[in-house]
Amino acid sequence: MPTTNDDDTLLEVERVASVSGAFGTITRDTAGLCCAARGSSAPAHYGVKRAGDRWLVSLATPDRWLSESIETSLLHSRDTMEDLLLDELKDRDWTEGAVAVKHFRDETKCYVFEAALPASSNARDDIRRLGTLLVAFEGTFSELGDMSEAESP
């Protein structure tokens, strides 16, 4: 369960997500922040949550085909997820270097792409980093696979 400071951090990251205009419905609860993927061909959401001494930013979908379409896009582009994400981050003045992205199927049977950032003792720093990473995640994934299929004519 998030602490009061974590709740405040999530509230501010929620504001960043809302102002970006990149997401559909945005909700926050005891598990963290959940931002619906706009225009995806299947249900998907971006998330931010605290896990011990780190923050997790993710894209999750229960749809196997959507996950595979993202993987296929990566395979054809010959880029790594980290390289594509770093390009998006650099466009947002990120100076911290590449962020590792894991891809797995979780216990709820969702396909997850996830990046971890160490939590800092400075909430403002966490808000800046998490907001930047969340919006960069959306910018990266919205261009892959069937993440924008619903927007096609």
Description of the structure:
It is a single chain. With 153 residues, the chain is an alpha+beta fold. It has four helices and six strands. A six-stranded antiparallel sheet has the order 1-2-3-4-6-5. The longest helix has 19 residues. It starts with a helix and ends in a 12-residue tail after the last helix. 34% of the residues are buried. The mean pLDDT is 91.
Describe how the helices and strands are arranged:
Blueprint: H1 4-20, E1 23-29, E2 32-37, E3 45-51, E4 54-61, H2 64-77, H3 81-91, E5 102-105, E6 111-118, H4 123-141
Antiparallel strand pairs: 1-2, 2-3, 3-4, 4-6, 5-6
Tertiary shape: globular
The largest sheet, given as strand count, sense and whether it forms a barrel, is: 6 strands, antiparallel
The H-and-E topology, N to C, reads as HEEEEHHEEH
- Quickly count the domains: 1
Mean pLDDT: 91
Give the N-to-C terminal Cα separation.
Answer: 42 Å
Q: Tell me the radius of gyration.
A: 15 Å
User: How many DSSP E strands?
Assistant: 6
Strand order, sheet with most strands: 1-2-3-4-6-5
Note the total helix count: 4
CATH architecture: 2-Layer Sandwich
Q: Which regions are unreliable across 5 or more consecutive residues at pLDDT < 50?
A: none
Reading off the top of the CATH hierarchy, the class is best stated as Alpha Beta
Strand content: 25-35%
